[in-house]
UniProtKB/TrEMBL annotation:
UniProt source species: Martelella mangrovi
Protein's name in the database: Putative HNH nuclease YajD
Region (Disordered): 1-59
Family: Belongs to the HNH nuclease family.
Keyword vocabulary terms for this entry: Endonuclease, Hydrolase, Nuclease
Biased composition (Polar residues): 1-22
UniProt entry tagged with the keyword Hydrolase: yes
One MF term in the entry's GO annotations: endonuclease activity
Length: 142
């Protein structure tokens, strides 16, 4: 049913090439509250953790890019390129256990698709280095 609303929305946005007239504005005002009020509170009222995850994903759609085959291939490629060695200056730990390696974005991609998939923006880190790096970054971001 949410899909229907979206399609209707798109319909009146694209079908009229000209400037919106009075009736379009009136429809916009009637439609808008239904579209916006339906979603925001789902997770908080139920306390359902899966709903919570869905909300997180809606806010950060790039999270699911980590679950794609493309990402697991790219991650492996980066590990191989870096010879399974942590790229943190002063560490240089070589780790054969891939679950203890992290394919890290040097510059935070913040949902930017180009930066997310950019091999030059990716590096191999061992888990301890990655975790302490992220902790420092989060503190710096506030
Ligand atoms: Zn390291």
């Amino acid at each position: 049913m949410e899909k229907g609303q979206l399609q209707r929305q798109r319909g009146w946005q694209t079908s009229k090439g000209g400037s919106p007239d009075q009736s379009d504005m009136a429809r916009l005002h009637k439609l808008a509250p239904r579209i916006t009020s339906s979603s925001p509170r789902i997770g908080s009222t139920v306390g359902d953790s899966r709903a919570h995850d869905r909300n997180r994903e809606a806010r950060a759609p790039w999270r699911k890019w980590y679950r794609t085959a493309r990402w697991s291939r790219l991650r492996l490629k980066i590990f191989e390129r870096d010879l399974f060695q942590c790229q943190m200056p002063g560490c240089g730990h070589v780790e054969g256990n891939l679950s203890k390696l992290v394919c890290d974005h040097k510059k935070p991609h913040r949902g930017n698709e180009r930066m997310f998939w950019d091999e030059d923006n990716l590096q191999t880190l061992c888990k301890p280095c990655h975790d302490s790096l992220k902790q420092r970054q989060e503190r710096a971001d506030g």
